[in-house]
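Trying the structure run again after the queue cleared.
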Amino acid sequence: MIIDLNELNKSNVIEFNYEVKKDEELDNRIDDLVNTEVSGKVYLNDNSDIIIDALLKGTMVIPDSITLDRVPYDFSINIEENLKDLEENYENCYDIRQNTLDLKRILWQNIVLEVPMRFTKVKDAHLKGNGWELINEKDQKDEIDPRLKDLEKLLKGDD
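Done. Tokens:
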């Protein structure tokens, strides 16, 4: 969403659905964004700094940390930023010639920061696979692998 800064004092309320083209902009950790909405306001403070005060809510589809299945992850981000403090972002989002501000880049950066490092929907997973099994220390049995029986005999003989 591009905001005309000449019109900023007239209508500073923003409400729109945030959409990202899958092929162009999605982060490699985010498969899709669903029902993402932005509501809030953009205004000038007493120092003529551009302030963004908005709520960004939606659902991102990300891979499950254990199964790698695509799972929905709901997020809600409260954005309170002074663009003067964000010098790097300010230059990328502000077009001096047209006196406009592109909010999409700022919103996208906040979404990427919200992606969890690990997220899973699997509860109490006792995973098994072909020839392997995940066990906890408390569930571990004192049985010796039959392939190591000869090694046990060798070690007991040294006592």
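The CA atoms of residues 62 and 111 lie 12 Å apart. Worth checking whether this holds up in the mutant runs.
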